[in-house]
Write a structure and sequence with these properties.
Length: 487
């Protein structure tokens, strides 16, 4: 893939508004630091040696820190539409984010005592104040004006609404009535139930979603919003895959994916919640970063937990005949098998329990919400304890170290369970399985249908990030510390 193609796909995947805000945020944060540093130590300091393009160490550090601040801004929802559309909330969130950015900078300076972190509190305070004022001006005045100008110049993103449901009609009507705030131009509907050419909410039905490739080229579509209600999970995933292939993204608001819009703090188109699916991350920096986190996390975990592992292995051997480790074949990325490690918490041979296998198959095929399909009579005394506190899961860190698993991802399953899944559900194994995942956070709270588990995994696979991994890992720690790991 050429560099030009990679850039085109990256631009296609991301909202123009988000790109504008991220770039201007970075330029303001880094530029203001350079100006305040120059003014504070003027004329004894040159931030950059222009002929050699050499940054002083403090500026080099702040270049990186400004990029990290964008991650912080993202966590404060500063790149979500619902934040932009409420000026008072936007200003308050921006103030909080800048206060935290300043606090983190001061803490780093205090803890490290590094010379590359400028010690002057005056520089830090001036940077935070001036950055906040410029960011507020850009985000609350300049950005809305540019957005309004782009709308008047017909530069909105051209989208199709897939599904002429009541929600879809409401969406189209609101986007057209409030075009200056939406940033989207609804070109038409794609529906199996309405004839091509029929007008719905003032826009035509272009055809069916089965023709989306041809219609996208014909009408110069740049994206789609799925509001269809009369679709199966398989059809929804097929639509999403087609849209991601064509546009790099798709927004979904329909009952089939309601668990995502209800539980994952979704963004909104005006006040209509949606979740966004993108293509699988393929960038070398993303994949290398995730692998680096997995390596560091697994090595640190094994080193810290080695005494606990040793005690657990001895306790299992002393209280129950059989090996301390339970080793089985599980399915990983792309359906490939690997050897999966756990501490044995059940009597030897319990994995051949036909009742348990039947319950799992019903959970998958009939989408029944169930507790963990475990015959408690087969759980050993030590096993009950280590399952409650997730101690039995610790050996999976060896799988992470080997590269078969990640710290965060879909749950690995036996081959029989994998073969029982529908094709759309197997999409969650487009990435490595994980020790924990979004499914863990919600399954520990409610007994959820299998379709919800698959949707959480697919959403994670299409939106994975370091920030989401941290959120899931911290949430898993909370689940474990409250003794709900085996719920």
């Amino acid at each position: 893939m050429t560099v030009r193609t990679r850039i085109d796909r990256w631009l296609q995947r991301h909202s123009r508004s988000v790109l504008y805000l991220a770039v201007t945020d970075f330029l303001i944060l880094f530029g203001v630091f350079g100006v305040t540093l120059r003014l504070r130590f003027m004329p004894r300091i040159d931030i950059i040696d222009v002929p050699q393009l050499h940054l002083i160490p403090s500026a080099s550090f702040f270049l990186v820190y400004s990029l990290l601040a964008l991650v912080l801004f993202n966590e404060f929802r500063l790149y979500q539409r619902r934040t932009w559309l409420t000026p008072a909330m936007h200003l308050l969130i921006l103030l909080k984010a800048m206060a935290v950015a300043l606090l983190v900078y001061m803490v780093l300076q205090y803890l490290t005592k590094s010379r590359i972190i400028v010690e002057s509190r005056l520089v830090a305070a001036a940077w935070a104040t001036a950055s906040f004022l410029l960011l507020a001006f850009n985000r609350l005045l300049l950005f809305p004006a540019l957005w309004h100008w782009a709308t008047r110049s017909h530069m909105e993103r051209r989208v199709a609404v897939i599904g002429a449901s009541e929600t879809g009609r409401t969406f189209a009507r609101r986007m057209r009535n409030e075009a200056s705030r939406s940033g989207l131009d609804v070109v038409g509907f794609l529906s199996k139930l309405e004839p091509a050419g029929k007008e719905i909410e003032g826009v035509p039905c272009l055809g069916t979603w089965l023709e989306i490739s041809e219609l996208a080229a014909q009408h110069h579509l740049e994206g789609a919003v799925v509001t269809a209600e009369n679709v199966t999970h398989q059809e929804l995933m097929d639509i999403a895959e087609d849209c991601v292939r064509l546009f790099g993204w798709v927004d979904i608001h329909c009952s089939r994916a309601e668990c995502l819009t209800l539980n994952l703090d979704p963004d909104t188109h005006l006040d209509i919640p949606f979740v966004r699916l993108r293509g699988l991350p393929t960038g070398p920096f993303v994949l290398a970063g995730k692998r680096a986190v997995d390596l560091v996390g697994s090595i640190a975990g094994l080193a810290l937990l080695f005494p606990l592992m040793l005690v657990t292995a001895v306790a299992i051997k002393l209280t129950s005949p059989g090996p301390a480790l339970y080793i089985s074949e599980r399915v990983g990325r792309g359906g490939r098998p690997f050897r999966f490690y756990k501490f044995r918490s059940m009597r030897v041979g319990s994995d051949r329990d036909g009742t348990r296998s039947a319950a799992i198959l019903r959970h998958i095929k009939d989408d029944e919400p169930i507790q963990k399909a475990v015959n408690r009579a087969n759980v050993t005394r030590v096993g009950a304890f280590i399952r409650k506190w997730a101690i039995d899961e610790i050996p999976q860190l060896f799988n992470v170290l080997k590269g078969d698993m990640s710290l965060v991802g879909p749950r690995p399953v036996p081959r029989a369970d994998y073969e029982a899944e529908d094709p759309w559900q197997k999409k969650r194994f487009d990435i490595k399985p994980g020790c924990t995942g979004l499914w863990k956070l919600f399954a520990s709270r409610d007994h959820i249908p299998f379709s919800h588990t698959a949707l959480y995994d697919i959403y994670y696979a299409r939106n994975m990030s370091l920030a989401m991994d941290v959120y899931i890992l911290l949430g898993t720690v909370r689940v474990v510390l409250t003794g709900r790991a085996d719920v």
